[in-house]
Amino acid sequence: MLYSKVQLRAWTMQSTTPEPLTIASLEAKRRSFKFSCHCVDSYTSTCPRFLIRIELIQSTCRLLTRFKNAVAQHPRLAVLVSKVEEWFKTWKSGIMSDPPLYASPFSARHAQDTVLASIGDKIDRLVSIVSRETLKLRKEQSPSVIKVRPSGPSEGLLAALETTYEGPGPLRAGGPRHDNDARNISDIRIAPTHGELMSPVEPYLPANLYAAPHHEAGDSMERLLDIQFRLLREELT
User: Fold this and answer.
1) In terms of residue numbers, what domain contains 195?
2) 38, 189, 165: which is closest to 103 by C-alpha?
3) Is 192 found in the same domain as 81?
4) Where are the extended beta strands (E) located within the chain?
5) What pLDDT, in 10s, does the model give residues 17-52?
């Protein structure tokens, strides 16, 4: 639940006599998350008069924790959290300065330190949530950049295939690998021969890439049939 400007002004116009805080009451209220800090604002002429209750910080913190899309649905929440952080830094610096710029509402220094630490933790949590959700919202709203990889194999791969390429049958520099190593697939027996099974040389398996080296023309049907036949036969045998 967000508080209106009328409610904030009503709190500002409350009595400037703060209720003294004791250690026992402070710890009890802090543990139940229902304590409130009534601050006296004795601002100089350069600082505006305003008063904000701790319930505003707690309510905003619960809202952002329970509803992850609150920042997206209510963009002014980010502005509110920024104003609360700015107010707390100014007020904390003022009451802790020597001499203090603003009257401290706390009866003891350790009570003041406990309350300031508790408020600071909640405000830090609010700032962290708003920053995270704002960044997420910006990423969702920004146009997505699709990285398109160049089609086809890389130049390095093609160069490696070209270096290690040895053609089939008589096209190989050392001659046919075995008695079933032919240039034309029509001359190759489907079932492997004894010489093929016992051959120590790797079979001729052309790469199924457009620019890869091959003994048939690049755009020919013979090239496509040759590659498919040799690869399928290798899988079956």
Assistant:
1) 155-236
2) 38
3) no
4) none
5) 444 444 455 455 444 434 433 333 333 333 344 445
